[in-house]
Design goal:
It is a single chain. The chain has 250 residues and is α/β, with parallel strands linked by helices. The chain has one domain: Rossmann fold, CATH 3.40.50.720. The protein contains nine helices and seven strands. It has a seven-stranded parallel beta sheet with strand order 3-2-1-4-5-6-7, with helices on both faces. The N and C termini lie far apart (42 Å).
């Protein structure tokens, strides 16, 4: 049941999807802890969320991609908020596929941010939720993890690993009370996709993804495509014969 005293930790709170999801929680009167690196932006967001109805909105500054002392930091977040009910992990980088193919340092950065650090925070959050026997972990993934494609297979590999991890956490949680969900957006109009041709019906707005992420924190399966039609698109892409798939520029 939705509760006006719901306590929400948002990791990577300045991302477009996270910011939109935070507004939905504020509308419910939740207490929200915004975590990220941009102190000015986080502070501005906290003021805005209070104006939108949040019971409380506070900030914590952390380089989440470094995942340094994640268990201790996360314990501090929980203490600062006075407990936790929902955790949203919503940060990442797209990176430059071409550069990453030539430069292992660039490739490692994409993998470190999108998988290694995200996995660390997810595992730490899962331990806390399991220990208290309730709560939700919602992680933003990507349809890019469904099949390796020449356009973004390093980013896609990180997202594929994150999907397996969150799905495993959801299995671990089965019949124990907490829930874990991976949200798999298709192309979305966010700062991450600046510079791309973002026209066409397949592009979503961050508000659409936020609606799904927020709803799935309460109910639904462990994997959610966002918007839902991507489930069918990716089903086709995953099952295309190599002879056809290898001729496609996707």
């Amino acid at each position: 049941m939705k509760d006006k005293t719901l306590r929400v930790i948002i990791l990577g709170a300045t991302s477009a999807i996270a910011a939109c999801t935070a507004r939905l929680y504020a509308k419910e009167g939740a207490s929200i802890l915004l975590v990220g690196r941009d102190e000015v932006r986080l502070s501005q967001m906290a003021v805005d969320l209070k104006a939108r109805g949040a019971e409380n909105a506070t900030v914590a500054f952390s380089d989440l991609a470094a995942a340094t002392d994640a268990p201790q930091q996360f314990a501090g977040f929980v203490q600062q908020l006075g407990g936790v009910d929902h955790v949203l992990l919503a940060y990442g980088i797209l990176g430059d596929q071409g550069a990453a193919e030539r430069d292992l340092v660039a490739a490692e950065e994409i993998l470190r941010v999108n998988f290694n650090s995200a996995a660390a925070w997810s595992l730490v959050a899962a331990n806390v939720l399991e220990a208290q026997g309730r709560g939700s972990l919602v992680v933003i993934g990507s349809v890019a993890g469904d099949r390796g494609r020449r356009a973004n297979f390093i980013y896609g590999a990180a997202k594929a690993g994150l999907e397996a991890l969150v799905e495993g956490i959801a299995h671990r949680f089965a019949n124990k009370g907490p829930r874990a969900v991976l949200i798999k957006p298709g192309p979305t109009v966010t700062p991450m996709t600046d510079g791309m041709n973002r026209k066409g019906a397949l592009w979503a707005k961050p508000e659409q993804i936020a609606e799904i992420a927020h709803a799935r924190a309460y109910r639904g399966a462990a994997i959610a495509y966002a918007p839902g039609f991507w489930r069918y698109i990716m089903l086709i892409i995953r099952n295309l014969p190599a002879a056809i798939f290898n001729r496609m520029e996707i």
